[in-house]
């Protein structure tokens, strides 16, 4: 068997993150009586993604991200001064209820377990929140190990998060393949640490970093075929 362990990302790999963010914003704005406009959503998504890229590069901390995520935009669109940390915590409370699975995710986890793979999670996120979402989605118990950046104290693609992960895992990097949508976090992180990856590019993004995963797929059916054909356990060879 070429690999024994598959690490899987959570956000926009297993769970539909845009749907989760949309529902969290809906609930937050309803609670405050704010009108959630298309202009706000567009600017929020762009700003949020930029902050997460800074986080991955180590240019700001998670607490700093939380503190600056909402205040300037709420002030700009609604003229209100808010406690940024309090509103961010409220938003993330709603976010941690989001658990819509991407098509084929659960079936693929079941299939991978049937083939004999150990499944693990490595996610940039909060331990309680990500575990809660996986439980709500009905897939938590498929994983033998769940590690978040909060637990590790650092973010993908920092090599230290992989140091922490493999210190908890029963498998080595050479026995492991990473499956995730994040080019800069998942694929670059795995490459930098020296192990293999499959890029789940279901959003059809350009590979601007010129990193080279073993495979690029845009749906779970393709990944299942790779598991059977290219990563086949000895019993299937």
Automatic annotation (TrEMBL):
Signal peptide: none
Source superkingdom: Bacteria
InterPro entries: HAD-like_sf, HAD-SF_hydro_IA, HAD-SF_hydro_IA_YjjG/PynA, HAD_sf, PGP-like_dom2, Pyrimidine_5'-ntase_YjjG
Pfam families: Hydrolase
Gene Ontology molecular functions: 5'-nucleotidase activity
Gene3D superfamilies: HAD superfamily/HAD-like (3.40.50.1000), Putative phosphatase, domain 2 (1.10.150.240)
Name this protein carries in UniProt: Noncanonical pyrimidine nucleotidase, YjjG family
Lineage of source species: Bacteria, Bacillati, Bacillota, Bacilli, Lactobacillales
